[in-house]
Design goal:
This protein is of the alpha/beta class. Helix content is 37%, strand content 18%. The chain folds into 3 domains: 5-192, 2-Layer Sandwich (Nucleotidyltransferase, domain 5), CATH 3.30.420.10; 202-351 and 488-531, Rossmann fold (3-Layer(aba) Sandwich), CATH 3.40.50; 352-484 and 541-550, Phosphofructokinase domain (Rossmann fold). The structure holds 6-O-phosphono-beta-D-fructofuranose. 6-O-phosphono-beta-D-fructofuranose (F6P) is lined by residues 210, 272, 315, 338-340, 382-384, 435, 454-455, 484.
Length: 565
């Protein structure tokens, strides 16, 4: 339990403060004041009061001491009178055998309470209790500041005497001055629902395309970087461009990104099928064009959330869409990701190092079985039309033959290398092949053809061909999506963090329509238009390829004037 002590003041709807369907909470801690408010269609005071308390508890660090002031008997008694325990024992049934209402909220409440030390303080209903007036007053003020409540409406609905804060006799003055004094030090407003004028700037965030290790590290960096340094908020769109078109979004708070740096995948979800300019709801398997341009909805949804700039984390496809959005006037910032490392405007993309690490570990394991069985083991790795994963993992894993899309291979050359090794007493060989590699005169092998092609199968083809051409046994292993899964390496976590922080800096400087990138050892940015042109591929004349050749690695064909190892 930490020593941090927080004071939470909540108010729901029916006192007329903060208004029908509204809720508000204020958190005070030392020199910080945080105001939170929201609105719901479903108007019951009990539910609104719970929402206020839950939302407030979500904002404070776990392990805190909390004094929670509320005028809701429902809320306080549930804990103080032991109703909650009884409900849990009875399978969430009331003593009358009816299902407990608002179970979703109660369950979340329970979780939040477990991780904090909460003292429940029931304040008397309005009119007679100074503390209650303070709650009402702060709640009202929060709603006014954030413009969520329609106060005129509210006043019409409530008799004058019901509106706390009108009573000048109460001792709000001192509370008011304390609040004002603290306000400039740190103030954060959180709002759910429609747009209004707030002092806080907002950026949107989505992850598009195939997932890769490090996406969560970037999300974390953007949210923390924006919140800590610029008092800015981040709205996350779920499932890539689908969430943008369908307004499936939420405000990502600090707790949501807590502990995710080491997690693979993306907490936002992703999709490599949804294009706002040609939108196919549900994604159709034959990828027919629909001419269903929903980019207007995307723009509207950004406006609804008051988003000034959209940060798009993606590979070439998503960055191309980012560029198209920028062309219709959406301020965007791109962050490059892909395990393939095939984006020309950055030296490295995050995800690549993790994929290479996974592939290398797999090759190490295959090595031992290759050796035991005297077999030719073929390991097929991803990378689309670029051979970076094959080259890097092949070198790191001590592969004897590395086949990459940049250099069509020759079966007789491969067999020569295998036989040359046999001649030296090496009864096994490891071939690392990129999924996009193909033989001289041939073409890449696709499992699925169409608008979105899916490469695969070259490993098995090579393995069969080797068995036909030699008297050796051969097996193929396709590493596939293993390379995209799991925890990011420390290199990727750091690169992702640096990219995320740079994106927030660009946002702060209003330097839009750029993509962050790594140049040498520095994080920089390049115009998006430039970033999305072309594909980076392995340079056959690079020092790295020469190094591989120098240790006897074959590339399956003559290369750089050498016979190819
Ligand atoms: O671009 C990343 C990547 O993993 C490629 O290496 C691979 O060809 C492709 O995505 C696979 O895509 P999907 O997950 O849609 O099959």
């Amino acid at each position: 339990m930490s020593n941090a002590e927080f004071y939470i003041y909540t108010d729901g709807a029916c006192s007329g403060n903060p208004g029908p369907g509204g809720w508000a909470a204020v958190i005070m801690h030392g020199h910080s004041v945080q105001e939170i408010s929201g609105h719901e269609e479903k108007t019951t005071n009990q539910r609104m009061e719970m929402k206020a308390a839950i939302e407030a508890l979500r904002q404070i660090p776990p392990g805190s001491k909390v004094k929670l002031y509320s005028d809701s008997a429902y809320l306080v008694n549930c804990f103080k009178q032991g109703w909650m325990k009884r409900w849990q024992i009875n399978g969430w049934m009331t003593s009358k055998g009816k299902p407990v209402e608002n179970q979703d909220l109660w369950r979340e409440f329970l979780e939040l309470i477990k991780i904090n030390e909460v003292e429940w303080i029931k304040v008397k209903g309005h009119g007679g209790d100074q503390m209650n007036e303070r709650c009402d007053h702060l709640a009202r003020r929060t709603m006014e500041n954030q413009g969520v409540a329609n106060l005129e409406e509210e006043q019409k609905m409530c008799p004058e005497s019901d509106i706390p804060g009108q009573d000048q006799k109460c001792s709000e003055q001192s509370e008011e001055s304390t609040l004002d004094a603290h306000e400039n030090t740190f103030k954060k407003s959180i709002k759910t629902g429609v747009s209004n004028n707030r002092p806080v700037r907002r950026l949107g965030l989505l992850t598009g395309g195939g997932d890769c290790p490090g996406l969560n590290a970037v999300i974390r960096a953007v949210v923390k970087g924006a919140g800590y340094n610029y008092n800015s908020e981040v709205v996350g769109f779920n499932n890539g461009f689908k969430g943008l078109v369908e307004n499936d979004a939420f405000l990502i708070d600090d707790f949501t990104v807590s502990g995710i740096i080491s997690r693979g995948g993306t907490i936002l979800g992703t999709s490599n099928r949804d294009n706002p300019f040609d939108y196919r709801p549900g994604g159709s398997s034959d990828y027919r064009q629909t001419d269903n341009d929903r980019s207007g909805d995307a723009v509207e949804n950004l406006k609804k959330w008051d988003i000034e700039c959209l940060v798009i984390i993606g590979g070439d496809g998503s960055l191309l869409l980012a560029h198209r959005l920028s062309e219709i006037g959406v301020p965007v910032i791109g962050i490059p990701k892909t395990i393939d490392n095939d984006l020309p405007a950055t030296d490295v993309t995050f995800g690549f190092d993790s994929a290479v690490t996974t592939a290398t570990e797999a090759i190490d394991k295959i090595h031992t079985t290759a050796e035991s069985h005297h077999r030719i083991m073929v390991v097929e790795v991803m990378g689309r039309d670029a051979g970076f994963i094959a080259l890097e993992a092949g070198m790191a894993g001590g592969g004897d033959i590395i086949l990459i899309p940049e250099l069509p291979f020759d079966y007789s050359h491969i067999v020569e290398k295998i036989e040359e090794r046999q001649g030296r007493g090496k009864k096994y060989s490891i071939i690392v092949v990129a999924e996009g590699a193909y033989p001289v005169g041939g073409e890449p092998l696709y499992q699925v053809k169409g608008a979105v092609k899916r490469l695969g199968g070259i490993g098995s083809q090579i393995s069969r061909e080797i068995e036909n051409r030699t008297d050796m046994e051969s097996r193929a292993t396709v590493l596939g999506h293993l390379q995209r899964g799991g925890s990011p390496t420390s290199y990727d976590r750091v690169l992702a963090t640096r990219f995320g922080v740079k994106a927030v800096e660009l946002f702060q400087a209003e330097k839009y329509n750029e993509m962050v990138c790594l140049k040498g050892t520095k994080i920089e940015s390049v115009p998006l238009g430039k970033a999305v042109s072309g594909t980076k591929r392995v340079d056959l004349f690079s020092e790295q390829v020469r190094a591989a050749l120098a240790v006897g690695t074959s590339f399956g064909a003559p290369i750089n004037g050498s016979s190819g190892g």
